[in-house]
Amino acid sequence: MVTYAEIQASNALINDATAPRVAVFVGATSGIGKLTIKAFIATGASMRIYLIGRKSSEERTNSFIQELHAINLKAEVIWTEGEISLLAETKRVCEVIKTKEPRIDLLFLTAGYTPFTSRRDTAEGLEISQSLAYYSRMLFILHLLPVLDAAEAPRVISVLAGGLERTSVDLDDIDLKKPGNFGPMKAQTQYTRLNTITLGKLAVDNPNVTFIHSWPGDDESGQRHLFQTTSAAFGGRGVPWNGKPGVNSLEKQADGLFLVNYKCDCTPNAKVVSLLREKAQEKIWDHSQEVLRPYL
């Protein structure tokens, strides 16, 4: 376990040189994303943050942004409205950001929820929780990869359930559309595996970008995710780290995809991830490309 004291010590070293200068937070109007933005702002570093959320969140988020500005006058937080359960809207938001920013240092993805009701589809034919937890996240990454790759040490963090993968994945019904196949437990476990499998491929294809699939935690999560976004513990780039180096999903002390639990320990889950990579990656990637292609 990386102790909270070690995390606080590392985070205290964050400054203008080590903080992400431009960050995009998707789904940060509440919960872990909101806590992480607040932790970023409290470092006092100069940064620009795009905070993306629904129209219904705008009023309370603007109040939050005013609070943040009072904490750190060097930070700029830009409210960006978007109904990102819709892939067309995700594309639009990405295009807006790309016209403004030649490079992005951090993409932080937390949008989503556990679907305790029956299946609810968007106007695009995707189940809402799956669109938020998987398709929209991957579309954000694919659209923003060119500007991420232009940064010195870019990171992508998807907060869901990294390290909790199991070997079973429904490849015959990836979107869980068959009658009786959709439910909260099945959906969450399916989305987790889809995230890890696709992030793993993206990490191999984009070696300049560090990817983290994180398992959320408690009220310390803002500081712990700040650590994940800045520490050299994950891939060697960032705030200097004298502790044990993180191990990626290929069981190497190198860059790539890190599966990180709520205590900031790397949990490669190597046997499971290796099996998923072998039996499921190609089919999931092909299916995802088919879904996302109209919005790329």
Automatic annotation (TrEMBL):
Pfam families: adh_short (PF00106). Keywords: Oxidoreductase. InterPro entries: NAD(P)-bd_dom_sf, SDR_fam, Sec_Metab_Biosynth_Oxidored. This is Uncharacterized protein.
